[in-house]
Amino acid sequence: MRQLEGAVQSVRVPLVSVYWTRQAFVHWPYPPAVIQSLLPPHLEADVFEGQGWVSMTPFLMSRPHVLGVPMPRGTFPETSLRTYVRHGGGPSGLWFLALDVTHPAMLTARLLGIPYSLGHLVVEQHGGTCHYAGRRGRRGPRYDLEVRTGQRIRAPRPLDSWLTDRFHAYSMSAGALWRTPVVHEPWQLSTGAVVRLEQSLLPAAGLPEPADSPLVHISPGVGPVRLGFPSHMA
To answer: How many domains does the chain have?
Structure first.
């Protein structure tokens, strides 16, 4: 909770506010050295009990506002491929290996080094299952995912919280490292199971095929999410 409280103090005036809904987290363990090879200088792979992780997170963005001004097309899908990092003695956070989105305005975040690409994405709810699919551009990497929601997680395990409670995101722009604070309420998590998964996002990011089956979390979402102004990391 101290980490969350510190982030709240740093986002008194948000750069962006948004709701994230119909969220799926599909997590794969990887050796830390594999992840480290994909990171810029000054960042190190964060580990849980000696293990690094990479997560694919498809979801819907809704009600986005930039500096209090609503964006057009209020709901649209996004998919991130992310890993978990640390910067020196600072807070742990996220490093995005790829971000696919359908809204062209989100590409402006490239100015901050956030690797957005336009894609063709689908999010379809069917009772207790949700279908997510996407392709980057016309011939880029793709995925087709169907997940089934399981039981509500009333008492998250340490790994559940470690993978989902992240309140900082790192990026590189103009040769400099930046950190963006992210504030939201705790996730409401359920277990999940993969019904179907085909993907080429991992190899496109430079990762080998996973050696283990993924761990899955499902959430109805959180909001409002408040993203603060990026700060330069020395």
So the answer is: 1
